[in-house]
């Protein structure tokens, strides 16, 4: 399938657009050209509901005239001179941005590293239909499951080219396979639903469709007959799927843009202990088969593994060139293309696991709450105040005894991070990866 995307031809057109922008009067410029193909199949009750194939191209030219900058986007690289002229004309009438500019030449990648980003395996719509049907059948076979919420299989192939006027030109191809299924348990007003899924760079790494379906069915059945609980303070364990959101809140708080805007509750905590001793959080753009692995950042700059948190101490912000200049710091290769320029952000962010299994952690906790699902986005990035709707299971004597729903978990992320204890069950499949997490003394608002 890789022969569908000719990166050599795309690189050539991007380089010609760079030349056209310079000829039109740009002092500097860069071009991001992206192309891709995506295929998906949705199945319900064994029948194909929808098959979708999408192909698209997009190019963004960013130009600099002094400290003024502007960007234009198009769906093809055909009329290069006109595109370049429009971008330069726009830049000449925009306000100056003292932090705008390309990555410094000494930060540019000179040799593109080889990463495991591309699975050459060909997947046909018929195969994808078989995967989705197998997952759905396995979910429906679970005792207590009353109906299917549908199953879907997907595949995508994307090609990215970045060319700059100061000598960088790089490209890469990346693939992604996915499979998900939703199961419904119970009847009438007592119905509950849950899901399971997998998403991988290589098809060979995907979980068996029947296993994904079985897990979805079992999760739905476990949620039947939930009860409401009274307001209390208790220990909470976030299972790994729900725990990923906590790491996402951390990523937002250490984003250089939030630091520059003074909208992060961690803005004054660099080189201070934010987590308990022993806690380690790593961001690695070269993580093998990682969901956000990439050979260079959105500016063509070098990146390396960053120990964001070492032994509980915060060590880095995520920085692109512009944000680093604003903060008076050195960039660290975390630029992502966004809108008319770049924004800083994480790549493959991992909270490293502890030594205690989830089962052992539940036993040691004794009584508390296991959170399996979160609702809403109640987090104040400035103060760290945290309030999320949740569902899960009451834990008594280390065992789940009753499904619960319609509760709210509240606290402050500064305190939560300081008390956070990771289990050993790291779910390493995704760009944001965590094990299950214990946080003692959380406030639960119930009925």
TrEMBL record:
Gene3D superfamilies to which the protein is assigned, alphabetical: PmbA/TldD superfamily
Metalloprotease TldD/E central domain mapped to chain residues: 119-224
Residue ranges constituting the Metalloprotease TldD/E N-terminal domain according to the UniProt record: 29-91
Protein name: TldD/PmbA family protein
Family statement: Belongs to the peptidase U62 family.
The organism of origin for this protein: Roseibium aestuarii
PANTHER family in alphabetical order: METALLOPROTEASE PMBA
Domain Metalloprotease TldD/E C-terminal: 232-446
Pfam families attached to this UniProt entry: PmbA_TldD_1st, PmbA_TldD_2nd, PmbA_TldD_3rd
Upper taxonomic lineage: Bacteria, Pseudomonadati, Pseudomonadota, Alphaproteobacteria, Hyphomicrobiales
